[in-house]
User: Fold this.
Amino acid sequence: MSELLTKAKLAKQAASELVTKSTEQKNAALAAIGKQLVEEMDYLLAENKKDIEEAKAKGTSTSLIDRLTLNEVRIHDMADAMKQLVELSDPVGERLEAWERPNGLQIEKVRVPLGVVGMIYEARPNVTVDAATLCLKTGNAVILRGSSSAAHSNKALVRVIHHALEKTDIPVDAVQLIEDTSRETASQLFTLNDYLDVLIPRGGKQLIQTVVAQSSVPVLETGAGNCHVFIDQSADEQMATDIVVNAKVQRPSVCNSIETILVHEAWASRHLAKLAAALQEKGVELRGDEAARQLIPAVHAATEEDWETEYNDLILAIKIVATTEEAIAHINQYGTKHSEAIVTNNDESIAKFFTSVDAAALYHNASTRFTDGFEFGFGAEIGISTQKLHARGPMGLPALTSTKYIVHGTGQIRQ
Amino acid sequence: MSELLTKAKLAKQAASELVTKSTEQKNAALAAIGKQLVEEMDYLLAENKKDIEEAKAKGTSTSLIDRLTLNEVRIHDMADAMKQLVELSDPVGERLEAWERPNGLQIEKVRVPLGVVGMIYEARPNVTVDAATLCLKTGNAVILRGSSSAAHSNKALVRVIHHALEKTDIPVDAVQLIEDTSRETASQLFTLNDYLDVLIPRGGKQLIQTVVAQSSVPVLETGAGNCHVFIDQSADEQMATDIVVNAKVQRPSVCNSIETILVHEAWASRHLAKLAAALQEKGVELRGDEAARQLIPAVHAATEEDWETEYNDLILAIKIVATTEEAIAHINQYGTKHSEAIVTNNDESIAKFFTSVDAAALYHNASTRFTDGFEFGFGAEIGISTQKLHARGPMGLPALTSTKYIVHGTGQIRQ
Assistant:
């Protein structure tokens, strides 16, 4: 039997044991993992060093090597994260609804674990610990498939997790790492419907698109972010400038940063030159449509491609619009249904924007950078869903659960 | 441009208009559809007759022809169903959660339409009206792809729906019927990710499996039902008999009927012969494992295939078990995660069964036949989900919605 199938069977078996475990048993396991990570720090750093050296030998970029790197501080951070995860309330067992039918049947809808979660991800070894522990907290078994570039680190981290689980009531088999990092193994996960309840890809656009296109296992799509700020006619100049600068500059590489601003022509004629200067001062390259370049002539011309691009970089496209409707139409055509903001003092514009923009998170007078499980107050984040089924936007622990109807009868039969 | 792509674009455009429509506008459209169905009854019956004649010429079975048939009563039933749908509360716009963050951001989670729903289904023309109107009620556009055997009826029904919508504020393009019923068109729906937000197959196992395996559009799986009743040691004899007979006999062709009973050996030795006689009296063919055949020797031997089969017929497999755990293990191995029942007076058995059986609906001392949107009191049903993401069990109107986060700020930026 292949490594994948063997481990999938073990994970499924572990999942059936996990549903019987209490919140206390799961929390004890999380605490044990935090402790073990610190205790085996030297081993983790030594194994991580092997990945780093291989990456350096391959000429990997400094920023990717930084993402790959474990150090004392990062391992202590992981251990601290376990303490926070223990504190979060356990969604499993929560009674969402309860009612009685005229025939006396008592129906309850309760939260249950999903079962076995598959996770395909790139580079960062901290995702290994994150995914494993969020799944354990919600009573799920997990099959991890990380990238070859972090192979030593991931193997070491899962070994440490197993050492911790051995001391607890949680089955060691609940956390499985697929050590074969070939493309073929990844593809086999896509059709493992008998063993996997959901597949979560975390990584670049290419990875996510491949999983969505090829997986028959249901996917939780955590996606790309081509986000916008629309500056309406009545927008406060300083507020609009602060929000646009923040949403573009504060961390340009992440999905909730913006790529294009849509500016009402009346606001643009008064304030666009100053906004452009503020952005350029922060090192942002601007690309404008024709109307924008009338007002800020020095910037490059934006093309169709710019409207479609998630730069993930200090580049911003600018389009002048005549109405709120035009801004909404542009967002719905080019956006990725992630995070969209309007800056305005006009109630009618707000209402139109909130009703008609099709995205996971809509903001009035705030930066798109808040689309994040921690910023929303969830205390944890599995990812940000850009799909519409099951979970949309920042996903906290409940996104890793399903439900069951529990029906109590006294002998009822259907007429 | 192909018929499919043209209609998909129209549906998407209509969906963007639908989000701006009020509950009153949607309800007025539903009422108009009910009225129009009755007004154009002669036309509908004439078109339906064409399908029936073609089916007869092909030698289609009487039961399939019955499913295909429209008549005055059935059309009046459809019109009555519209009145009931108008009465149901509109989930769209419902505020599910609202909270404030320490930085003053006000976050709301509200229900919104999914967008464009794709529906692939077999034979019955009433699904055309059902799907279209449940989608309209929840603000969704719909692309319908019925079977060739109901082509005339479906075309006529959608024409009548369009005639009704022309008199209302709801765009006619919100309901699209794909008239090309070739397999190729169905397959094209599977990858229409740019236009479809969800695909719902309704029909046989083959259809559903094909959609699940091949669709990159997210699927709401409405599935097969290999359901069980477990009769525990302490089960009341009469209650167990009534529930098993009801769950098998009342309507054997549907997914929430049972296919296998698991009987505790202690109960079996006392009561199985009488239960078997009660079933046989109703015309049920029994197939037993070795232990069962010791007690009721005349029945056929059950094979591995029997445990896996959804008979949809008056056939029932019987397996004797020594413990609740053995019953649970059998259900989790062979069940389709649909509906599972335990008949018992033992609290420990109930707790084990509810915790460990992995299915959408679990029953204590009641028939599995209650897994149904109407029996649950939802007032409508899109289908019964056997998947774990998004919706599980009977799906009412909320299953046709997604959510949005609406965030109100006063200029907040991320630090």
In short: Chain B has a mean pLDDT of 96. The longest strand of chain B covers residues 401-412. The CA atoms of residues 64 and 123 of chain B lie 8 Å apart. Chain B has two domains: 3-222+390-408, 227-370.
